[in-house]
Amino acid sequence: MPTIDVKELSLTFTTRDGPVHALSNINLSVQAGDFVSLIGPSGCGKTTLLRAIADLEQATSGSLLVNGVSPEEARLQRAYGYVFQAASLYPWRTIAKNIALPLEIMGIGRAEQQKRIKENLALVDLADFGKKYPWQLSGGMQQRASIARALAVEPNLLLMDEPFGALDEIVRDHLNEQLLSLWAKTNKTVVFVTHSIPEAVYLSTHIVVMSPRPGRIHEIITSDLPKDRPLNIRETPEFLALANRVREGLRAGHSEDVPV
Q1: How large a percentage of the chain has pLDDT more than 90?
Q2: pLDDT category, 10, cuts 50, 70, 90?
Q3: Is the pLDDT of residue 259 over 50?
Q4: What residue ranges in 32-99 does DSSP mark as E strands?
Q5: Distance between CA atoms of 53 and 7, rounded to whole angstroms?
Q6: How many CB atoms lie within 10 A of CB 144?
Q7: How far is CA 9 from the centre of its chain?
Q8: pLDDT at position 260, please?
Q9: Average pLDDT over residues 78-103
Q10: How far is residue 189 from each of residues 45, 59, 160, 161, 185, measured CA to CA in Å?
Q11: Which residues contact 126 (CB under 8 A, 6 or more apart)?
């Protein structure tokens, strides 16, 4: 059974100015352990698709299953963790207490909370920062804390909405390396939204190339790069060829003229 199974999904928003067709006939199957990146131009529905998987938006037509159940059931089962574009940490709570928040809501006992906080801080290389406040951490460290919070509920699926987009290139490269390491350690299924071709190619087992609104899947590219990927793999002919294929897919998808 796929972790995510999307069939003929369309989503239209109703606005005062008329309907906005955000997604059209999306078909996507994500298997357990995949790292899938959604890439496309601004407004193509990448985040809308991610939010539909997370039960934050409801499809107009078609079907969507997460772990074999509806997105609502998956949300109630805490089947996924969600990492937003901004870290969204509460400034009056320490990093440890920010990570504890969803556990408190779930009614997890204090001893188990402390265990999960310690494990996940170590997982994102923040073991010594649990007592710090968000404003005492860099932007990259805050995002790592946000990832730790998402992992603390022990989901099998991690949904990430362009979490590194606002960071500088050096920090972003470092976090890409850490995210790959984290994925290898946890074997989570990851769906990741990005505008960056190098980021999508470096991280992913599959790259979903989307075309402009209404958002459609133009192409799904399977990466043949090895799972162990040092950062300098970006200079290899294999990486550059894959990046070029994604770039050409984006151009071709942008030139499509599909009636709404």
Answers
A1: 81
A2: very high
A3: no
A4: 35-39, 61-66, 80-83
A5: 12
A6: 27
A7: 19
A8: 46
A9: 94
A10: 21, 22, 11, 14, 12
A11: 95, 141, 144, 145, 148
Half-sphere exposure (Cβ direction) of 149: Cα atoms closer than 13 Å: 28
Q: Which two tokens stand for residue 207?
A: 């790259």
Specify the pLDDT at position 227: 87
The pTM assigned to this predicted structure is 0.91
CATH topology of domain 4-79+156-255: Rossmann fold (3.40.50)
List the domain boundaries for the chain. 4-79+156-255, 91-154
pLDDT per residue over 215-229, tens digit each? 999 999 999 999 889
Q: Quote the tokens at residue 187.
A: 């074997």
Tokens for 178?
């850490």
- Cα separation of 195 and 65, whole Å? 26
User: Quick one: how far is CA 214 from the chain centroid?
Assistant: 21
Residue 28 near residue 4, CB atoms below 8 Å: yes
